[in-house]
Amino acid sequence: MPESTQAAAAPMSREDVLELVRTQLADILEISTDAIAESSSFADDLNADSLALIELVEALEEELASTVPGFRIDDDDLEDLRTVRDAVDYVTAKLEAA
Predict the structure, then answer these.
(1) CATH code at 92?
(2) Contact call for residues 39 and 84 (beta carbons, < 8 A)
(3) Which of 13, 68, 80, 87 has the most CB atoms in a 10 Å sphere around its CB?
(4) Considering its fold, how many domains does the chain have in total?
(5) Does pLDDT of 2 surpass 80?
(6) Selected catalytic residue, list 27, 34, 45, 49
């Protein structure tokens, strides 16, 4: 099996999900990934507004659709995601359940 196929088929680790969330957030908020800790609050620490969170959700859904077809973050669950850790835990749990 080609190496690229193996990598695509391998499940994402929690660390991979954290890195993905940090990278996407850094791009959306135009800040360094170094400024984003797992314990960072979207609103209090990162000054991310609801539009930035929607952009994050869309970016994660697009990125993870190749790993889990039809991957979605439910709108009702979005209000429970207050920190980077919340988002990582949520995405990791959805990936494990798939």
Answers:
(1) 1.10.1200.10
(2) yes
(3) 87
(4) 1
(5) no
(6) 49
